[in-house]
UniProtKB/TrEMBL annotation:
Tree of life domain: Eukaryota
Family matches, as InterPro entries: LRR_dom_sf (IPR032675)
SUPFAM superfamilies: L domain-like
Protein name: Protein tilB
Keywords carried by this UniProt record: Leucine-rich repeat, Repeat
Record's keyword annotation contains Acyltransferase: no
Signal sequence interval, chain numbering: none
Length: 226
């Protein structure tokens, strides 16, 4: 008969639920933060007898201890990519953690099927990678007033509408490869004219032809009154 490995007992536990260790959230760079399935889901899967320990009523003291152990507020660099957020409660837990990242400077959220993080604010984030998600607009991105490097490759951003929201940020590098907006006419000129601090787009430095020329038709519309 097929025998499961001992680690199978831990597969639905987050790192902070495992006893006898003092690891803090700010010591981890690539933690698994999605929660395991609910008790009802385990029952339908026929897996509830494989859980490491029976779920019990969590006290306020235990909740506070878990919050202190997670310690997300002190994270400066964190990779939360490939979390496999298959259920709504997992997404909500994921966003709960993002709201605590008040000091994070570098954050990777690659391939998490994210659609809207507009309610999230990352006040110190300088580098954000949200490639391979399902964003359709710049308005759905988190608030990042200190952003310098932003990667949005392989999303579904249709137009450049909303890109001017980053006009007053120190954004220097932007990656929009494999988004529909990449095929918009005068794509590079529009992006650079909207973002005066931008130095590099899609890995290519700003070129002379990326600067929008003056509107020639404007001079023909002028008239001189003698």
């Amino acid at each position: 008969l097929f025998l499961k490995l001992p680690s199978d007992y831990f597969k639905y536990l987050s790192w902070c639920d495992i006893e006898e260790h003092d690891v803090r959230g700010n010591q981890l760079h690539c933690p698994r933060v999605r929660e395991g399935p609910s008790k009802e889901e385990l029952f339908f899967r026929g897996e509830e007898h494989h859980t490491f320990k029976k779920r019990k009523q969590v006290t306020d003291t235990e909740k506070w201890q878990k919050k202190l152990q997670e310690n997300w507020e002190n994270c400066a660099e964190l990779n939360l990519s490939f979390q496999d957020l298959g259920d709504l409660y997992q997404v909500e837990n994921f966003k709960r953690i993002l709201r605590r990242l008040i000091r994070v400077e570098k954050l990777w959220l690659v391939d998490n099927s994210l659609t809207d993080l507009s309610a999230i604010r990352l006040p110190r984030c300088r580098e954000l990678n949200v490639s391979k998600n399902h964003f359709t607009s710049f308005k759905q991105l988190p608030k990042t007033p200190q952003i310098q490097h932003l990667s949005l490759a392989e999303n579904n951003i249709m137009t450049l509408s909303g890109i001017s929201d980053f006009r007053h940020t120190p954004l220097e590098s932007l990656i929009l490869k494999r988004n529909p907006c990449e095929f918009q006419e005068k794509y590079r000129q529009i992006v650079f004219s909207s973002l005066p601090n931008l130095k590099m787009l899609d890995g290519i430095p700003k070129l002379p032809e990326d600067c929008s020329p003056p509107d020639i038709n404007f001079f023909f519309k002028m008239c001189t009154i003698l």
